[in-house]
Fold these 2 entries.
Entry 1:
Amino acid sequence: MKFFIDTANLAQIKEAQDLGVLDGVTTNPSLMAKEGITGDDNVLAHYKAICDLVDDNVSAEVISTDFEGMIAEGERLAAIDKKIVVKVPMIADGVKALKYFSKKGIRTNCTLVFSAGQALLAAKAGASYVSPFVGRLDDISTDGLQLIEDIRLIYDNYGYETEILAASVRHPMHIIECAKIGADVMTGPLSAIKALLKHPLTDIGLQQFLADHAKAAAATK
Ligand code: E4P
């Protein structure tokens, strides 16, 4: 399973990349706003800076909600770098835009997906990635991981090539469950990725190993 980080924060992207486990990045308009990135030139420059930090792809979301606007914006975003994947919302014009981009060979990520039906539409329109939001479904007492399982089954039934990008991942158990189900990619915060490192027995074991080594070294002096 590929690991994407869900942020527009360059320091966090670099930290995950330096850990050696990061594949790509997803962003959204809220995450860009959080970093104070506004204005066409700043947005394009920021996406370029993100692309320069990672090996795999970077999802850049359109702001437009009409077909023509999404096409113009998506083409501008795709021209920034070959790592850019154009992120398009799951609305009717978005589905048309997915089809358009797919025919033009521009990779897409269909975002704001909350049902298996929406995921099926995204695949039929030729989306490269579909982003079901696990955490936001959990937030409203609906099983987000069940949706990942349903989409996996449907895509495997028909051999759809659209990759399942489990989004709105909030904690390490989401990541582990997504891996068990067979999501192709997960995107989450740095905190969730780093939380995978933690186990108290690792810390206790390491302390013991180092203490035993120090004792033996002192005894042989
Ligand atoms: C998806 O690509 C979104 O950027 C993201 O995963 C949303 O996560 P959130 O629900 O934690 O905001």
Entry 2:
Amino acid sequence: MSSPAALTADERARIEAKSALFDPPEPTTPDGRRDLVGLSRAQLAAELVAIGEKPFRAKQLWHWIYHQGETDFSAMSSIARPLQGRLAERFVVGRPEAAMVQTSQDQTRKFLFRFRDGQEAETVYIPDRVEDRGAVCISSQVGCTLSCRFCHTGTQQLVRNLGPAEIVGQFMAARDSYGEWPSPHGETPRLLSTIVLMGMGEPLYNYANVAQAMRIVMDHEGIGLSRRRITLSTSGVVPMMDQVGAELGVNLAVSLHAVRDELRDEIVPLNRKYPIAEVLAACRRYPGASNARRITFEYIMLQDVNDSEAEARELVRLISGMPAKVNLIPFNPWPGSRFTPSTPARIERFARIVMDAGFAAPVRQPRGQDILAACGQLRTEGQRVRAGAALAPPPPAG
Ligand code: SAH
Ligand code: SF4
């Protein structure tokens, strides 16, 4: 009989094979130049060797691309002119095109990025209200295969995975928008100081591309964001949670949202495959879970659905003994959604029970609501236009 470890490895291989079916197109321009953004260091070196250059050039280019944020080869002053020209013939340092940028009254900025094949995804920058820092909320897929009932992205089918260039590119283009280049060193304050993989899509159903992108972001000779400043949110893809812990060691956030399988099956349908007990067991195994690196449990507050005091007590029982915090997210409505956000009084009571048990339980303040940039409101403009087009009456004949 197979051991549980072998079963998990099989499951992981199955997930990765399925994910590969949704891989992005090759990152090349219509005239055949390859985008250097998103390549690992080894891949970048291989591209250079392929055009007869020495591999050490990769280090120089890496610095220009990820430390300086330079996109124009002719401005890369440490590279000799003839080589600049040869690079420009074959390569580009790309960025996703910002098809729309909206800044909310509260300074939250939402970007709709369009990729080379016309697909789009949203990215949100959420500045801290007081200090000069902020989180960039990045998308990992166009659409999502899961259909959590409260999530706007979940109403849209998965179109495809985003590639490393598109994932890192969201962060780099957001940095362009604030002019934050070169990359600040070490602990120097940064405006775009953390990454949360909480935009559109389930990052653990696109693990290979997300992992490659995060390795690039964490590289010390480039953007140099520490793994402690990156949080990956998952709806609970158990076999891949172990892999993230072992390979990336970023902070983990888990979208729990319910304390009984019966309800979670309904609102987070992935629960039918990986029920609450398995998700929590994976959290307990997550490496580095110490007081300083707590697991975040995200809990959406849906009026009369999951917000009772009994549920708060059950939540505390489920996570007891774990280095954890609970992020309470008032439901953000979107056109056509079926739920109502819990009242502030109910959220307060729920939070009180969790806090009295010794867990931090901040209530996430919705940001950027005037531009539909809050959690769970993201969806691509392109899809909306197409859906609208499908509903439009046919043109008159003749
Ligand atoms: N797929 C991953 C990451 C993207 S969703 C996941 O589900 O964790 C990021 C967070 O936004 C999740 O916790 C999700 O449950 C939450 N969310 C989704 N829709 C929401 C809504 N309408 N209001 C508030 N939070 C929502
Ligand atoms: Fe997908 Fe996360 Fe939305 Fe669920 S909450 S549909 S997993 S993006």
